[in-house]
């Protein structure tokens, strides 16, 4: 069993979303819909956001917690991981867009990081505080990346169970994040329906230093699974200590 309890100690106490929720669970949506998108449309500047992509229908927002954490948020009203809109035939590949946006994490720490030291994550609605889809983009804890290294050469498309700090997760290596390999679609294959998807958490990280060559790892757990979890946000390090170790 791999131990990194410190990684989980900050999941909720250091979450910007938790702070926002004390005021308004729709705060992220209001930032996008009232501030960022109108600013981009009116002036060509993203307002409070870092980026507004009107064509791909998402924004990138710097989270108020951490030195490098950013969020990808759709400009359409999508509640979260449980939304059937994410599985529609022409749904956007938000994971691809989030992965491409890891550059903003690197800009924040003024470092180019190996892809297995960067991660994307989404929480179950039972472990989130905002009712607008948002994918966390940030650095990984070094010990977590080291633990995932044992899956770097897994055959693509196959789930492998593992235990991290007492919680059960399954891990799949993939060679794409788009279309049929979209993590939402992969997890939904054996978790059909809104109720089942609402129990899930998903994390994506590079299987090795170069995801283009090594692929990605999809990490998934279910809140109702014995020793399962509805969050993988603790795998991310919002202080991005790996950047200081370069």
From TrEMBL:
<keyword id="KW-0378">Hydrolase</keyword>
<keyword id="KW-0444">Lipid biosynthesis</keyword>
<keyword id="KW-0812">Transmembrane</keyword>
<keyword id="KW-1003">Cell membrane</keyword>
<keyword id="KW-1208">Phospholipid metabolism</keyword>
<keyword id="KW-0594">Phospholipid biosynthesis</keyword>
<comment type="similarity">
    <text>Belongs to the Cdh family.</text>
</comment>
<dbReference type="InterPro" id="IPR003763">
    <property type="entry name" value="CDP-diacylglyc_Pase"/>
</dbReference>
<keyword id="KW-0732">Signal</keyword>
<feature type="signal peptide">
    <location>
        <begin position="1"/>
        <end position="18"/>
    </location>
</feature>
<protein>
    <recommendedName>
        <fullName>CDP-diacylglycerol pyrophosphatase</fullName>
        <ecNumber>3.6.1.26</ecNumber>
    </recommendedName>
</protein>
<keyword id="KW-0472">Membrane</keyword>
<comment type="pathway">
    <text>Phospholipid metabolism; CDP-diacylglycerol degradation; phosphatidate from CDP-diacylglycerol: step 1/1.</text>
</comment>
<keyword id="KW-1133">Transmembrane helix</keyword>
<dbReference type="Pfam" id="PF02611">
    <property type="entry name" value="CDH"/>
</dbReference>
<keyword id="KW-0443">Lipid metabolism</keyword>
<comment type="pathway">
    <text>Lipid metabolism.</text>
</comment>
<dbReference type="InterPro" id="IPR036265">
    <property type="entry name" value="HIT-like_sf"/>
</dbReference>
<dbReference type="GO" id="GO:0008715">
    <property type="term" value="F:CDP-diacylglycerol diphosphatase activity"/>
</dbReference>
């Amino acid at each position: 069993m791999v131990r990194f309890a410190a990684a989980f100690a900050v999941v909720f106490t250091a979450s910007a979303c938790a702070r926002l929720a004390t005021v308004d669970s729709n705060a992220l949506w209001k930032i996008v819909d009232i501030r960022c998108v109108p600013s981009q449309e009116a002036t060509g500047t993203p307002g409070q956001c870092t980026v507004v992509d009107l064509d791909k229908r998402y924004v990138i927002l710097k989270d108020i917690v951490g030195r490098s954490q950013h969020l990808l948020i759709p400009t359409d009203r999508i509640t979260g991981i449980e939304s059937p809109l994410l599985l529609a035939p022409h749904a956007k590949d938000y994971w691809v867009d989030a992965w491409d946006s890891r550059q903003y994490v690197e800009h924040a720490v003024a470092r180019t990081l190996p892809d297995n030291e960067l991660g994307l994550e989404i929480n179950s609605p039972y472990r989130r505080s905002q009712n607008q889809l948002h994918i966390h983009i940030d650095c990984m804890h070094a010990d977590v990346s080291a633990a995932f290294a044992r899956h770097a050469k897994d055959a693509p498309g196959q789930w492998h169970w593992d235990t991290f700090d007492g919680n059960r997760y399954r891990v799949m290596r993939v060679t794409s994040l788009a279309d049929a390999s979209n993590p939402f679609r992969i997890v939904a294959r054996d978790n059909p329906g809104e109720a089942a998807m609402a129990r899930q958490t998903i994390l994506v990280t590079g299987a090795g230093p170069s995801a283009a060559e090594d692929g990605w790892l999809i990490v998934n757990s279910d809140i109702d699974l014995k020793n399962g979890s509805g969050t993988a946000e603790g795998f991310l390090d919002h202080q991005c200590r790996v950047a200081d170790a370069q």
